[in-house]
Amino acid sequence: MTLLEARNLTVTARTDGSPVEVLRDINFEIGEGRTLGVVGESGAGKSMIGRLIAQMLPPGFGVSQGSLRFQGREMVGLGARQRNALLGKEIAFIPQHPLTSLNPVRTVGSQFDEHLKRLGIRGKANRRALAVSNLADVQLPNPAGLLSRYPHQLSGGMCQRVLIAMAFAGEPPLLIADEPTTALDVITQARIMQLIAAMREKHKTSVMFVTHDLRLAAQVCDEIMVMYAGEIVERGPAKAVFGTPRHPYTHSLQQCNPSLSGPRRQLISLPDHMPGLSAFAGLPGCRFGPRCPVGDEVCSATRPEMREVAPGHWVRASQGCIEGTRTIVAPPLEARAPDTAGLRRPILEARDVSKVFQVREPGFGLSHRKVEAVKDVSLTVYPGEFVGIVGESGSGKSTFAKLLMGLETPTEGQILIDENDMSGPFSANADARIELIQMVFQDPASALNPRRRISKLVTQAMEGRNQSVPWPERLDRARQLLRDTGLAPDTIERFPSQLSGGQRQRVNIARALCAAPKVLVADEIVSGLDVSVQAQILNLLLALRESQSVSLVFISHDLSVVRYLCPRVMVMYRGEVVEEGDTETVFSSPKHEYTKALIAAVPPDDPNADWRISDRVFSLDDAMVAAE
Q1: Closest CA to 372 of 335, 317, 336, 410
Q2: How far is CA 270 from the centre of its chain?
């Protein structure tokens, strides 16, 4: 039986006084107990569909054509009272950002109680018992004690599990999961997806799963629809769509995604970025046409119709583009140069570095306990070498990065950069640190001052070291940095808000390169980015290694990204290094049980492969909860 059905659905908005079709001719259906995946880059319209289902379109947006029916009831034009009766109880949501979705000044228990009260559960004792039961269902430790804690006292993974428990509390027929695993480490992601699958099976719930992770969607979804600029460009069985993609956009997204196994191939990044709403009116044909690697005059001038290329497999593309998709093949990545580390002196050395924090115990006393965030970690990096550090949240990766940068001081051990002792705090040798080591931060939006132009942002290092640097000299340096990072010249006078996420991350990298440092520390810099933008950033880093011989300490929870970028890898678990060595060897023949668990938690490259995440991931003790 069909639970949710969209037919010829079009959403129109007015930009500059003219109507623009934000969502155009959307057709899909979700059967009972089925999972529909929605994939595409930022701006494709994935979340807009969720907002439409929730009847929460932005001001000025409205349905101009078509219908959306839930359990046979028309939802277009639904009144506020009827809408509120549906949301939460019959249609539930798991949002993208768990830490910002929970009220920081209220306990988990009070927020859960309010949600259950809205669902019509009477009696405070009944609501408390149901909350404890639902938190236990999502495998949270000490669920009764958790009710008295605040969101900031939980990790991102735990907050996400709280939201999953709340979403399933009303046993809804339909669940909308909007990027529920974005920026989570692979083991936490595997846990979350298994929990959603278990809860879906228990409550017979249908799921709309919005994601930009193609491998994950291929494993957890029954059907997939690929969106681009407000249109569905490909739709069909998940394994067919990703096993034999017929639309050049779907195939291009796959070429942007590095693999964890098999031959290493270059990432073919899509040019430019998703068109904005104002550009839609100027695209009479296929909206993907300006970026399409195999586009022809037919699809540029005339909008292609949806055609069925296999049973249940639909594609919006001309026949020429469908056939041309097969010609998009990524070339092999050049073999890595042989290791000559023994012939050079290190540029960075960490010798038996440890960091112990004193954490105050809860209550009215002044007792503290020691937390060993980093334990006897040693690392040697040579000029021009890229080294990856992997591990789940709480493994000590980011704390180790702060130690390298001088943002934290080691409790024990020594850090040498270009043979200079940098074991002290940043303020002790700030000028020397700026010239030797720089950090690229995870979130470029919060790392860049929104009130400063790009010209001043990328030359901040010059500003900090010498207030008397002439402005023309800074401007010349800014232009050079923009060229080096592949940004357009006119970017120089823009503000961060006028750039895309990928462009802001390039600005973040350009700023780090301003002082010509010898070492870059990159902490999760492609986490949460679209795969197309991720490919651009990864290829940029490889180009910088060749042109500037910069060394890189690359921290990530994405093992396939580390394999693509770094010849050597270090695996951290509970603050310790449990395995390290050549990346290909470590990932293909892991020795430590934790490394095996990390690899088992990654969805396989082959959509037809069986993703058995429970055997190894859940056989270990709960590392995440221990860290929390």
Answers
A1: 410
A2: 18
